[in-house]
Design a protein that fits this description.
By secondary structure, this protein is α/β, with parallel strands linked by helices. It is about 45% helix and about 15% strand. It has ten helices and seven strands. The longest helix has 25 residues, at about 55-80. Bound molecules: S-adenosylmethionine (SAM).
């Protein structure tokens, strides 16, 4: 016969099941789906004094969830929409940007070497008078670690120094920067427009530095052919300077801007870059 204790245990288990379903239910990554998820979590936390007293474990649970399922949801969203759609998405709820970056930092903590650090080193080995534009700067780590003047650009300004815009249309002057950096930031489906914008703002002979997740440019794993990708960039009006495939996690491509844009971005045959979907950890 079931005891009162057994019944209580069953109820507790059922309650846990309900919460799990809430997590699984919201697989839609629209801002409203994420907002309703956050509301559900808030409601769960309002309940009783005893549940409030568990707020620190709730926060831990929340952090783990954000760096897991919700990070992956936001990440997939960014890889499957245009820059302008992503800009509007974050305008509706800028807190989602922080949510994304908590998860992103967690993922990066497992990488043996960060591409942004390789780019920082590249800049430190050169003249600090070079003016840099960091397209998709995230937490502006690059700007914080070099002496150069850096225009940090991202969808949301998490720091007063960051210019918030879709990087296909920046407020930077034409031919005003020496180095354009894209560190894991060619996320939107309209990424060729970001490269065209870099071409516009770069001075003649200015550097274009791209670090991208290896799997996106590895034909063996369904990624694009890196040679086709480089060829398309050259058709836009760049010359290839260096290719580095030595890192396990990312590739590095260096280009220089030619005097003139050769073709319009829409005339170039761009390979599709598949989304980088991070593993569940
Ligand atoms: C994967 S994170 C990399 C951040 C940083 N570059 C690093 O290496 O740590 C990519 C960043 O690019 C930004 N991003 C993606 N598409 C963008 C766009 N169209 N305009 C501006 N920023 C964009 C994202 O918001 C995100 O912060």
């Amino acid at each position: 016969m079931a005891t009162e204790g057994d019944t209580r245990k069953r109820k507790r288990r059922a309650g846990k099941g309900r919460n799990r379903n809430k997590t699984l239910k919201n697989t839609n990554n629209s801002p409203s789906a994420i907002a309703s998820y956050k509301q559900e979590i808030n409601n769960d936390n309002k309940g009783s004094t005893s549940s409030r007293s568990k707020s620190s474990s709730f926060l831990d649970k929340m952090k783990a969830r954000l760096s897991g399922g919700h990070f992956r949801m936001l990440n997939e969203k960014l890889y499957t929409c245009t820059g302008n759609e992503a800009l509007n998405f974050f305008k509706e709820d800028p807190s989602l940007f922080n949510m994304y970056h908590v998860g992103y930092q967690e993922q990066m903590s497992h990488w043996p070497e960060l591409p942004v650090n390789v780019i920082i080193k590249w800049l430190k080995d050169r003249n600090p008078s070079l003016i840099v534009a960091d397209f998709g700067c995230g937490d502006a780590r690059l700007a914080k670690n070099v002496k150069n003047r850096v225009y940090s650009i991202d969808l949301v300004s998490s720091d007063p120094s960051v210019i918030a815009c879709d990087m296909s249309k920046t407020p930077l002057e034409s031919s005003s920067v020496d180095v354009a950096v894209f560190c894991l930031s060619l996320m939107g489906t309209d990424f060729p427009n970001y490269l065209q914008e870099a071409h516009r703002v770069l001075k003649p002979s200015g550097w274009l530095l791209i670090a991208e997740v290896k799997s996106r440019l590895d034909p063996n794993t369904g990624g694009a052919d890196p040679n086709k990708f480089s060829k398309a960039i050259c058709e836009l009006g760049f010359t290839t300077e260096a290719k580095d495939f030595s890192n396990k996690m990312f590739i590095l491509l260096h280009f220089k801007k030619q005097e003139k844009q050769i073709r319009d971005v829409n005339e170039v045959e761009w390979p599709k870059l598949k989304p980088c979907l991070y593993k569940r950890r």
